[in-house]
Amino acid sequence: MKYTVVLPAAGSGKRMKADKNKLLLELFDKPIFVYTLEVFQRDPDCEAIWLAVKEEERPLMEKFVKEYDIAKVKGFAVGGTERQDSVRACLDMIPPCDVVLVHDAARPFIDSEVIGRLVKEAADSGAAIAGVRVKDTIKKAESGIITETVERENLWVIQTPQAFKYSLIKEAATAASEAGFLGTDESMLVERLGHPVKIIESNYENVKMTTPDDLIYGKAILESRRQEEQQ
Ligand code: CTP
Ligand code: MG
After folding, report:
1. DSSP-based three-state secondary structure for 26
2. What are phi and psi of 223, to 5 degrees?
3. pLDDT digits (tens, 9 = 90+) for 187-217
4. Cα(36)–Cα(7) distance, rounded to whole angstroms?
5. Rounded CA gap, 135 and 148, in Å?
6. Is 32:23 a contact under the CB 8 Å cutoff?
7. Which 8-state DSSP code applies to residue 208?
8. For 216-228, b where at least 16 C-beta lie within 10 A, e where not — what string?
9. Cys-Cys link to 86, which of 52, 149, 175, 185 (CB 3.0-4.6 A)?
10. Which among 196, 202, 194, 219 has a CA at the least distance from the CA of 160?
11. Max alpha carbon distance in the chain (Å)?
12. Which residues, listed in sequence order, are joined to residue 156 by a DSSP beta bridge?
């Protein structure tokens, strides 16, 4: 099942505490966002890649796209203040297609098997997002005092990719923009239209490179994948 991917890459990576966009930090010998691009370049079902980037970072990112031969990159949108604005800028540019996948450029370890299940579900029912089951005990607290232990059974940690029929995500993005609604993921924009969104169980390796300790975990994932390939 074919799809187009939109990759928001226009953040500043404040929590990473690097002096530049975290996506340009290298894991071993390659910038983080190049690993992400390579997943989609390799996936035969991915037809086109669109990136939202900061205007001033575009030349550098374009240079990496050429250097690593990511030929499926069809265009760059200028990212906005919020992640939602960056995704919207891409959605405004992409030609109509069946399924759009939105994926954080900062999640380089996504595997194509999960992508395949997401795209199939989105093509069937309209909307599907990746998530993993909560592993820890979750409690609510007020002023540092526990008020509730939340039942874990129905809790999910939501990730990207999030996959949608093109017409649905366009409608949801337009409606959110008209209402001045800001969500933390694309699913929220679709949920507020009352459209059901299916969770597809992903894996814990699909971590977002957010804080410096994530880089340690990221390198460990790459090491273990390299060892597996050599066996
Ligand atoms: N992103 C974007 N435009 C923004 C903000 C974020 O395209 N205005 C992108 C980031 O580049 C990243 C993804 O959205 O690939 C997920 O966001 P996040 O992990 O929060 O990255 P940053 O916003 O860069 O990091 P921080 O919140 O720590 O500043
Ligand atoms: Mg952010």
Report:
1. strand
2. -60, -50
3. 999 999 999 999 999 999 999 999 999 999 9
4. 9
5. 17
6. yes
7. -
8. eebeebbeeeeee
9. 52
10. 202
11. 54
12. 133
CA atoms within 13 A on the CB side of 45: 17
Three-state secondary structure along 64-83?
A: HHHHCCCCCEEEEEECCCCH
Per-residue pLDDT, 231:
87
Q: Identify the residue whose tokens are 């959605």.
A: 91
Distance (Å) from CA 83 to ligand 1 centroid: 6
| Residue 210 Cα: closest atom of ligand 1 | 19
Q: Using a 6 Å cutoff on CB, does residue 207 contact ligand 1?
A: no
Domain 3-127+158-230 architecture: Alpha-Beta Complex (3.90)
Q: How many whole angstroms separate alpha carbon 128 and alpha carbon 29? A: 33
For residue 129, what pLDDT is reported?
98
**Which ligand 1 atom sits closest to the C-alpha of 82?**
8
Q: How far apart are CA 134 and CA 153, in angstroms?
A: 8
Per-residue model confidence (pLDDT) at position 67: 98
Ranges of the chain with pLDDT below 70: none
- Atom 19 (ligand 1) nearest CA: 210
Quick check: 53 and 79 in contact, CB under 8 A? yes
Contact predicate 21/117, CB 8 Å: no
Q: At what angle do helices 32-42 and 112-125 cross, to 10 degrees?
A: 60
Ligand at minimal distance from the CA of 53 is 1
pLDDT value at residue 96: 97
Query: Are the CB atoms for 149 and 135 separated by under 8 Å?
Result: no
Collapsing DSSP states into helix, strand and coil, what is residue 97?
A: coil
